[in-house]
Design goal:
By secondary structure, the protein is an alpha/beta fold. Helices cover 21% and strands 31% of the residues. The protein has 4 helices and 11 strands. 29% of the residues are buried.
Length: 185
């Protein structure tokens, strides 16, 4: 009998403007190439869980995100997409990791299922914040209007690193940004 084992790290990763905006009209209202490179570095080789709107917001040429098992949460029972595992709840998505790991046991390359990354959107982050134990947040030093906001990290979350340690890095496009890492507990 197969006993599911939860990932050791359930991480959330997002970029947010000063006031917490993570999205506007289904897109990210800024372009910080360094953040995209960081996102790829952190998530590569690990499963990613996203909502269907986040999946839809990815450029078609990037779906599924390469080098990662893509799990998409949706309420729509009939929804499917090539290259994505469909789940209808966060628990179902986490269970799908074990099922996918069992299928891949004989393959040379597989995701490291001890670490999974929640990549959006706002509703999925709100659901995951209680289960997650790591958050990697790129802060953008600018205000943007938007409809989607980052989840609040309560007092159980502690900042464990900041890059740079103080102030802001400058993106190639001139926007200031920094990458903060928080751990729960």
């Amino acid at each position: 009998m197969h006993t599911p084992h939860p990932p050791k790290t359930i991480g959330m990763i997002w970029a947010q403007a000063r006031q917490g905006v993570i999205g506007a009209r289904g897109t990210v209202p800024w372009n910080v190439p360094e953040d995209l490179a960081h996102f790829e570095l952190i998530t590569m080789g690990h499963p990613v869980i996203m909502g269907r709107r986040t999946w839809d917001s990815l450029p078609e040429s990037s779906r599924p995100l390469p080098g990662r098992t893509n799990i998409v949460l949706t309420r729509n029972d009939g929804w499917h997409a090539d290259g994505a595992i469909v789940a209808h709840s966060l628990d179902e998505a986490l269970d799908a990791l074990d099922a996918n790991e069992d299928e891949e046991d004989n393959e040379d390359e597989q995701d490291n299922n001890d670490e999974v990354w929640i990549i959006g959107g706002a509703q999925i982050f709100s659901e995951a914040v209680g289960r997650a134990n790591l958050a990697v947040v790129t802060e953008i030093d600018h205000n943007y209007n938007g409809q989607a906001y980052a989840p609040g990290l309560g007092s159980e979350w502690a900042k464990i690193s900041s890059v740079p340690p103080t102030g802001w890095d400058a993106s190639v496009n001139g926007l200031g940004y920094r990458i903060l890492t928080y751990r729960k507990g």
